[in-house]
C-alpha cells in the first residue's frame, strides 16, 4: 500500500520520460494539461495570444528542464498550474507596467488590484477544475442552475444531507481562492489548488 507522501506513479514516470528526452512524453503531457495551462493563463491575462504564448513557454520549460519538477513537492498538475500562474502574473505585470510608463491610465495600486483579482479568479478556476467531480457537479447545479440543496440532491440522486455536505465542501475549497498571499505568489502545491 502506498503511503500518502508517495508521489503519483504517472507523475514520476512522466518526469523520467521527459528527462530521457522522449518527445512522445511531451505530447502526452501537452494533451493532458494544455487546456488547463491555457485556461489559467487566459484567466489571468484575458488575452488569447498572450495565453497561447504562456502555454508554449510552460511546455518549453518542462521540456528543457524536466527536473525542475520535484514529485515530492506535489502533483505535476499543481506544479504546472503554479508555473503557469507565476508566468502569467509576471507577463500581466510587465504589460501593465509598460502601459503605465507609456502614460496609460491607472496607477501602481490599480495594477496590483488587477493582478490580485486575476490571481483569485485563476485560482478559483483551478480549484473548481481540480475538485472531485461529485463536489463540482453539486456546485454547478446550485450555482449555474440555481438549485437549492433539496433540488440538487434530487438531481444528483443523493440524500439531502449528502448534497449539503458536497456543497459545503465545494464552497470551503472555493473560499481558499481568496487567501491572503501576496499577489503573484503561485498556487500552493497539493491537491486542493
UniProtKB/TrEMBL annotation:
Entries under Pfam families matching the protein: Sigma70_r2
Q: Which InterPro entries match?
A: RNA_pol_sigma-70-like, RNA_pol_sigma-70_dom, RNA_pol_sigma70_r2, RNA_pol_sigma_r2, RNA_pol_sigma_r3/r4-like, WH-like_DNA-bd_sf
Q: Where is the RNA polymerase sigma-70 region domain?
A: 29-94
Instruction: Give the keywords, sorted.
Output: Sigma factor, Transcription, Transcription regulation
Family per similarity comment: Belongs to the sigma-70 factor family. ECF subfamily.
NCBIfam families membership: sigma70-ECF
Protein name in UniProt = Sigma-70 family RNA polymerase sigma factor
* Organism of provenance: Streptomyces ossamyceticus
